Amino acid sequence: MLFIRSFPVIFVLVLFSLNGFLGCRSIAIQPGKQPVAHSRNRYLDNQGKGYSYFCTGYFFMLERDWENAAENFEKAIQLDRSSERIVQHLAACYFQLGENEKSIKYIEKLAKIKPKEFSVHYTLATLYETVGRNKEAIEEYEYARRCKTTKLDHVFLADALYRLANLYMNDGMMEKGIACYTSMFDMKLVTEPVKIYYEIGQKYFEKNDIKNALEYFLKAKQADPALSFASFYLTLCYDALNDYESAIQEAKIFLEKEPNNWVMHLALSEVYGKIKNESQKKEEIEKTQVILKNSIDAGSKNLKEYFLLCQIYRNQRKISEAIEIAESIKLISVDKEMRRDVHFLLANLYYEDKKFDRAEEELQMTLKLDPDFHEANNFLGYLFVENNKNLDKAIQLINKALEAQPQNGAYLDSLGWAYYKKAQVEGRNDYLVIALKKLLEAVRFMDEPDIYEHVGDVHYSLGDWDKAVNAWEKAIALYRQELSYETKIEAIEIKLEKVRRLISVEERGTRFIGNRREVGNGIQPYILKKHGEK
């Protein structure tokens, strides 16, 4: 099945431009015709000029000098505004010059001159589509399909219906799109339907209409059992519909033909994970890892492979290996945004490797490339806070991140924690109040254990021990839902044990600590010098 959408639109323009075109003699203003009006001399003068401009434009066109050709055709059209061929040539010249809107203007004029001509409306529709005027493109494709066509037009009619179907489906009008494809089948414009079934399936899949996507991928597979990527999408469809047995079966069919496709190995590992088959999941991840490593060692330029392998190493806690892969991306020529993302990834990896100076260095480079990258602004601010340095700069960076996302709970937590640390350094009660306000605002947007732990620390520093206990207990409950947080839980339990002893002593009336105060009484509250200090 042939679709011409990969050919330049000028192919169509030239096609119907040359229809009946015999050179300069075909211009409407021809020498030798005698006017009957009294302005005979003036007419002959204009006739000669128009003929001269047309021929000059024509010869420039043969030389592919589109600018001079257009200039002469423009002069010719002023003398014969109804000439179809001048209009056609102007449209072709402006298209070649990349001035699509001017080309459209002349094709629109031609459509009025020849309202029933299929090729004119088809060409106008493709030009509309080229400049993103999809609504007008749909109207013209619909108009074109109603025009009378010959067998010579069928390849273009097939392309018109194909393009129209895609426009409808991209706009969410799936039924209209499928109706266009059905017309192609009914008119026998399609000899191999597998491509159509496959593309309909893709459109439904992109719209997250999995059941209809599955139906058409099954049709594609039935039409051509050798089409391996039908099995690829069938795997994803069955997975989304929780039919894991069928997903595994299709994945294996695909991998028999393409054993080194890491995308499918990764997808299959996720399916095994959902059915709690950890050994098979691990095996598929290992296969993915080997394929990616071999590809990268062979000089791959596919950045997705680098990032995914980094993530696999990161999940395996092989941070040094992840850093090595991420650092190797710097040797590849990438755009500014990608370089920013690489530095940000390295900042995260160095942070996890407890190389905080390197993490800070990567964050500084990230922000040099993109000063408004809010994730990096928050991260660098929080890094300063955790290391008790540059607290004023930290607050400035975090506030900049919040300008981009004012309801981001993580950023609000960072800001609250920054004020808590500033309160520790400067012994200021008002900073603790600000810290608590920001942290309580953060938990409205994120139910995270880290934030509750920080809330507990601030309550403790303010002397509100009961509230501190409640916040820390909430943090422990949330941490227990996560993996590998035993150290965090142990640290909070130590703080809980300490504050419970203090509460017990107070309840027995023993003035073990005399500086517990309510905020606002003019006396500085007890402030821990170090978070979690015994």
In short:
The chain is mainly alpha-helical and 534 residues long.
What does this structure look like?
The protein has helices at residues 9-17, 40-62, 66-79, 84-96, 100-113, 118-130, 134-146, 154-170, 174-186, 194-206, 210-223, 228-240, 244-257, 262-274, 278-297, 303-315, 319-329, 336-352, 356-369, 374-386, 391-404, 409-426, 429-445, 449-462, 465-479, 486-507. It has 534 residues and is mainly alpha-helical. The protein has a domain at 1-191: Serine Threonine Protein Phosphatase 5, Tetratricopeptide repeat (Alpha Horseshoe), CATH 1.25.40.
Output the keywords.
disordered N terminus, Serine Threonine Protein Phosphatase 5, Tetratricopeptide repeat, 534 residues, single chain, mainly alpha, disordered C terminus, 26 helices
Would you tell me which CATH topology of the domain at 1-191 applies? Serine Threonine Protein Phosphatase 5, Tetratricopeptide repeat
Order of helices and strands: HHHHHHHHHHHHHHHHHHHHHHHHHH
Topology, number of strands:
0
Query: What would you give as the CATH superfamily of the domain at 1-191?
Result: Tetratricopeptide repeat domain
Share of residues in helices:
over 70%
Low-confidence stretches: 1-7, 9-22, 25-38, 510-534
Assembly category: single chain
Please report the first level of CATH classification, the CATH class of the domain at 1-191. Answer: Mainly Alpha
Structure class: mainly alpha
Separation of the first and last Cα atoms: 77 Å
Over the alpha carbons, how many angstroms does the gyration radius reach?
35 Å
Approximately what portion of the residues adopt beta-strand conformation? under 5%
Number of helices: 26
Shape label: elongated
Mean pLDDT: 84
